[in-house]
Design a protein that fits this description.
rod-shaped; mainly alpha; 3 helices; single chain
């Protein structure tokens, strides 16, 4: 987006610079009109690209919110669902979530990795 904002500012700067050239005899009014048309095309293209990027940014924000909602929903269902799974199935699920779960000899469990709703820190010890 920054690049397109720069292109808009550049087009506006060039437009105001061109406006004085006919009065100084450095450009005809027809030439000014042609350059103005090209600048307008550039400005319109930059505006279109900015609008496209704004829509994409809004969509990404909605998707991220949906992801958080889905993760919270799964976190509520997870305890019962995990208990019903075999050790291999739980291991596969942890891999998909990029989690590392270690059962310690003292019966504590360490969970590290991706952010999971319900855990307050990147490393949580459960007993």
């Amino acid at each position: 987006m920054e690049v397109w904002f720069e292109k808009l500012a550049e087009a506006e700067g060039m437009r105001s610079g061109f406006q004085d050239l006919p009065s100084k005899g450095m450009m005809t009014h027809d030439e000014l009109g042609a350059k103005g048309d090209r600048l307008e095309e550039s400005r319109a293209a930059a505006e279109r690209e900015l609008e496209t990027l704004r829509r994409k940014k809004e969509r990404v924000a909605r998707l991220e919110q949906d992801k958080e909602t889905l993760l919270k929903s799964y976190a509520k269902m997870a305890p019962e669902a995990l208990e019903a799974q075999s050790a291999q199935e739980r291991h596969r699920l942890y891999g998909m979530l990029r989690l590392r779960v270690v059962a310690n000899p003292d019966t504590s469990i360490e969970v590290t990795g991706a952010s999971v709703p319900g855990f307050t820190s990147p490393q949580t010890v459960l007993r």
